[in-house]
Amino acid sequence: MKEDLGLYGNELNFFSTYFSIGYAVMLIPSQIIMTHVRPSWWLPGLELIWGILTGLLAMSTKASQIYALRTFIGLCESSAWPGMMTLFMHWYTPTELAKRMGFYHSCQAIGGMMANALQTAMHTTMNGKAGIEGWRWMFIINGIMTVTFALLGFVLLPDYPNKPNPWAFWFSKAHAEAAMERLRRHNRAEPHPVTWASAVRTFKNWIVYFITILYVSTVLASWGYAYFSLFLKSLKNPDGTNVWSVSAINAIPIGGQAIQVAFVWIWAFLSDWLGNRHLLILAQAVIGLIPCIVMSVWDVPLGAKYFSYFISYLCLGTAPLIFAWVSDLIPQDPEQRALVVGVAIALYYAISSWSQVLIWPAKEAPHYRPKREKVEVEAEVGERRNSTQKDDVDDVDVESLRR
Q1: CA dihedral 208, 214, 218, 221 (to 10 degrees)
Q2: Which of 24, 213, 278, 291 could form a disulfide with 312 if both were Cys (CB 3.0 to 4.6 A apart)?
Q3: Which of 313, 317, 311, 307 is nearest to 257 (CA)?
Q4: Residue 222 in contact with residue 312, Cβ under 8 Å?
Q5: CA distances for 252 relative to 110, 157, 232, 237, angstroms
Q6: Do the beta carbons of residue 387 and residue 283 sit within 8 Å?
């Protein structure tokens, strides 16, 4: 794709930038709309649109076309991950929530593994078929898969316990009643539409600011793993040939994604089992300093560079713990929870829309010496913010958080 479209500058960064802009713009409105419109209509409907747009990426002939499509894909996709995190809070108890969020979160990595495997297969078997390059086949197949699962979503999403999806033929009234009883036992309130009053209440609450800073710092700090493929592509043999083939470059990161899946599950399981969120977030921040330091120094053995990339995948399990913590902190105000999730993730995407091209410019791959130190600072901010605020969080009367 890079060679076919002449992407030799920072276009790869800008693909993420335009996606992030769309994501950030639509995320909070999507969270609000989802409290007024059935999630089983809203979420699959937008997924259907972004599936079609993904397929259209296969027709791109220049970067500007991808910029436009990525912006609209971001607008639609902003509903999915935040919307599902919010839905989980309406169904699961504190001893179950992080595991469910973690499993869903890990599906991103599983999807990445499948995509890399599919890319490898496409390049090997489909490249040039019907006069279409392998990377274009990849977008076509991804688009078909997305549309298929979007259609299933109309009947598989159960909506809310107090207002179940009438199209969900598999979900009975007894299921809904059992879910409501479980949540009442754990001091969870029924969901209601977001109003102006609930928005004011949210922004008067310190939790929205604490969670936003924590989420943004932990996610930005660990972003270097996303450029593993560019590192692999930059490696040369003494004769100037590439160390790794295209198929290998697509396949090697699958190992990192497998590590990510395993540790997202481990962190989430431990969080529910121990009844603790903050210490496990802190542990990931500390581990994340290792690859930041190695990559900042950079003049280290090649094996250390491989190690730093792979170990960075251990630190990608903070998000499920952070949002499970939100549910613990605001059990009686689901409108606040929806807005806190929206604000935190929207600010991250707003920042990443411009920060990625500054911190990780693709044309400087694989080494970003002047920028690595910024990532170390962000990791340290996430660690310190989490550790210094924890005692204050524990001292708060949860019942007062709605006021």
Answers
A1: 100
A2: 291
A3: 313
A4: yes
A5: 14, 34, 9, 18
A6: no
Tokens of 211: 């969670």
pLDDT of residue 138: 86
Give yes or no for a contact between 122 and 251, defined as CB atoms under 8 angstroms apart. Answer: no
Cβ 37 vs Cβ 154: under 8 Å: no
- How is the chain split among helix, strand and coil, in percent rounded to 5? 75, 0, 20
Distances (CA, A) of 384 to 208, 224, 284, 285: 18, 20, 12, 9
DSSP 3-state assignment of 385?
Answer: helix
The pLDDT tens digits for 180-225 are 898 888 888 888 899 999 999 999 999 999 999 999 988 888 777 8
Q: How far is CA 400 from CA 93, 189, 210, 284, 331, in A?
A: 20, 14, 16, 30, 11
Question: Nearest-CA neighbor of 243 among 306, 189, 187?
Answer: 306
User: What is the total residue count of the chain?
Assistant: 403
Taking phi first (over 0 means left), then psi (-120 to 50 degrees means alpha), and beta for anything else, what does residue 130 get? Answer: left
Write down the residue that tokens 């500058």 correspond to. 9
Which burial class, exposed, middle or buried, applies to 205 when counting CB atoms under 10 A from its CB (0-12, 13-18, 19+)? buried
* CA 39/CA 84 separation, integer angstroms: 9
Place of tokens 């901010």: 381
SS3 218: helix
Cβ-contact 361, 226 below 8 angstroms: no
Q: Which stretches of 122-169 are DSSP H helices? A: 134-156
Question: Which CATH number is associated with domain 2-394?
Answer: 1.20.1250.20
Residue 293 vs residues 284, 308, 315, 373: alpha-carbon distances, Å = 15, 9, 14, 8
Which of the 8 DSSP states describes residue 122?
A: I
Q: Is the pLDDT of residue 389 over 60?
A: no
Written as six digits, the tokens of 240 are: 């100037």
Over residues 141-191, the pLDDT tens digits come to: 989 999 999 999 999 999 999 899 999 999 988 988 898 898 888 888 888
CA atoms within 13 A on the CB side of 317: 33
Q: Which pTM value belongs to this model? A: 0.85
| Beta bridge partner(s), residue 242 | 236
